[in-house]
Amino acid sequence: MKLRNLRSGHQPKLMIIPMIDIIFFLLVFFIMSTLYMVDQQTIPVNLPQAASAQSDKPQSVAIAVTKEGRIMFEQEDIPLELLQKRVKLEMAKQGELVFVLRSDKTAEYGKVVAVLDELKLAGAHRVAIATERKDK
Predict the structure, then answer these.
(1) What's the CATH code, domain 59-129?
(2) Per the UniProt record, which residue ranges are transmembrane (predicted)?
(3) Which of 14, 47, 55, 60 is deepest in the core (most CB within 10 A)?
(4) For the whole model, what pTM was predicted?
(5) Which of 112, 34, 124 minimizes the C-alpha distance to 66?
């Protein structure tokens, strides 16, 4: 009895060209999709106004501590004693706010902590400290 040789049949061909096409298609797809994930602010556009428009994120208020120790509330020089009242007033007018604390790196640490304390005493729950990214 003779056994059939199963290996003598034709071997399947691996078609590499369609695989390369698919890989390039996926590569282009992911490159194009990542371009739209980043907020692109390259073209200045004046947007129209609408009465029913709602803000996606809360307004931010900039508070700066200069290297001389002066406190700036939205470009206005303000003494530390009045900061708490001003923060409460802004929160009453605008509702939910994010306070962004920008401090000079040579400013006194105690002055920055005092500003943070005043923000906390005023009831500011959302405080961000602005920094710059280090170059590697």
Answers:
(1) 3.30.420.270
(2) 20-38
(3) 60
(4) 0.56
(5) 112
Structure tokens at 22: 């698919």
- The b/e string for 37-63 (b: 16+ C-beta within 10 A; e otherwise) is eeeeeeeeeeeeeeeeeeeeeeeebeb
Tokens of 74: 């939205």
Alpha carbon distance 108, 101 (integer Å): 14
> What is the tens place of the pLDDT at every residue in 44-78?
656 667 666 565 566 888 899 988 889 999 888 99
Token look-up 């409460």 returns: 88
What pLDDT, on the 0 to 100 scale, is given for residue 57?
64
Instruction: Indicate whether 135 pLDDT > 80.
Output: no
User: What was the pLDDT predicted at 1?
Assistant: 59
Give yes or no for a contact between 80 and 115, defined as CB atoms under 8 angstroms apart.
yes
